[in-house]
Amino acid sequence: MSTSNITSSNTTSAMTGQGRVVILGAGESGVGAAKLAQAKGFEVFVSDYGVIADKYKAALEKLGVPFESEKHSEELILSATEVIKSPGIPPTAPIVKKLVAKGIPVISEIEFAKRYTAAKTICITGSNGKSTTSLLTYHILKNAGLNVGLAGNIGQSFAAQVATDQYDYYVLEISSFMLDDMFEFKADIAVLLNITPDHLDRYDYKLENYAASKMRIIQNQTANDVFIYCADDEESLKAMAIAKPLAKTYPFSIVKPVETGAYLEETTIHILTEPTNQLTMSISDLALQGKHNVYNSMASGIVAKVLELRNESIRESMGNFKNIEHRLEHVAKISGIDFINDSKATNVNSTWYALESMTSDVVLIMGGVDKGNDYSMLKDLVRSKVKAIVCLGKDNKRIHDAFEEDVEVIVNTFSADEAAQIAFHLAKRGDTVLLSPACASFDLFKNYEDRGNQFKAAVREL
């Protein structure tokens, strides 16, 4: 039976009559928001319906911010003047519904933090590639000598950084869940990489609702701001036709030239924000390989050109960037078999990108919590590249149904150890064992990082 507690240090939050801020969720964003709200003189209370991790509990105790764990006390929450909600809490949560019914504003940490910084924001969203593109953009800007922070769906909390640092720029990875709770926020430079079905359970299983959420990245932008988008992505173009961006737009494409933006001509990328100032670079010199990463590199390159960074500096950074953990991460080569950890691929489109970049026969490890996945887009790639599928999840029926006619071998496993061992036996010299699940991880693992780490540990035991 779970226990609940309310904890308060002897130190009380500074009161300046600005009101009472309640924060729902005591993870990275919630604790960061508490830090900033306290620094700005609000009365602060943090409530988490789950168990608060020890490091966040210690941080709140150090701040002297009262908090509760494993429950939501309505009398303490519904007395708020404003609520900052963790992106993971759905709008259908009972406490959120009660807040909305009472007319209490519910916002995101990103919305709250932006009020207290004059820094320029480069905001990157998309169903796939946003972590890689955010990290690459940050890498380019930092290497060029800009005073830049990295936050949002990645790294340290935006609010915590605003409370303690004085950056001139922030690169923010923004999820649709964050965008749903952003209202007055404005991105100085907004990037939309793509729109493919993801998290549809939060959007009434309607792609148009999810697309509308993604387009909130351009809300409040004016003609003085910048919007960068993929001209090859049909859903993005559809959503743009409805949202009608006011900002200066820069498209990127690998299939057709563009006047300003970025495009691919044979094996050369052209990036230009004006016809007379162009950066060119061979795709073979990019640190990130694969078609999807050409798109990611183009988007980052346009940001860099908009900020008028030197071509030499941009080229150098795009050539020496190291990709993030759990995204097409090479783990080991054992008996001539490559093992790749792509645990961050939690949707079908991410797995499509991973398979598309493979140049050898693949033993594919996939499965987990199916978010209403449509596997049909994978069928051609599975037929041409995948020799066996190793399912890693509690319920693998939909994967069997989707691919039983496309591959000869589909095996069920229920741990990372078992999946790695069976995949190793199914592969031969020259093959690749690819963990690219296309599903969330919560049936067997804490999160996709835990899944990836367990897989890497299992590979190293082979």
Tally of alpha and pi helices? 17
CATH class term of the largest domain:
Alpha Beta
Coarse morphology: globular
What's the CATH superfamily of the largest domain, by name?
Answer: Mur-like, catalytic domain
Spans of at least 5 consecutive residues whose pLDDT stays below 50 are 1-17
Q: Structural class of the secondary structure composition?
A: alpha/beta
Protein name: UDP-N-acetylmuramoylalanine--D-glutamate ligase
Pathway: Cell wall biogenesis; peptidoglycan biosynthesis
InterPro entries: Mur-like_cat_sf (IPR036565), Mur_ligase_C (IPR004101), Mur_ligase_C_dom_sf (IPR036615), Mur_ligase_cen (IPR013221), MurD (IPR005762)
Domain Mur ligase central: 124-303
Features:
462 residues, alpha/beta, Rossmann fold, UDP-N-acetylmuramoyl-L-alanine:D-glutamate ligase, Protein-Tyrosine Phosphatase, Chain A, 3 domains, 9-stranded mixed sheet, 6-stranded mixed sheet, 17 helices, globular, disordered N terminus
Q: How would you portray this structure in words?
A:
34% of the residues lie in helices and 23% in strands. It has 462 residues and is of the alpha/beta class. It has three domains: 20-107, Rossmann fold (3-Layer(aba) Sandwich); 113-320, Mur-like, catalytic domain (UDP-N-acetylmuramoyl-L-alanine:D-glutamate ligase), CATH 3.40.1190; 329-461, Mur ligase, C-terminal domain (Protein-Tyrosine Phosphatase, Chain A, Alpha-Beta Complex), CATH 3.90.190.20. The strands form three sheets. A nine-stranded mixed sheet has the order 8-9-7-10-11-12-13-14-15, with helices on one face. Strands 1-4-3-2-5-6 form a six-stranded mixed sheet. Strands 16-17-21-18-19-20 form a six-stranded mixed sheet, sandwiched between helices. Strand 18, helix 14 and strand 19 (386-392) form a beta-alpha-beta unit. The protein is globular, with a radius of gyration of 23 Å. The two termini are 39 Å apart. Its EC number is 6.3.2.9.
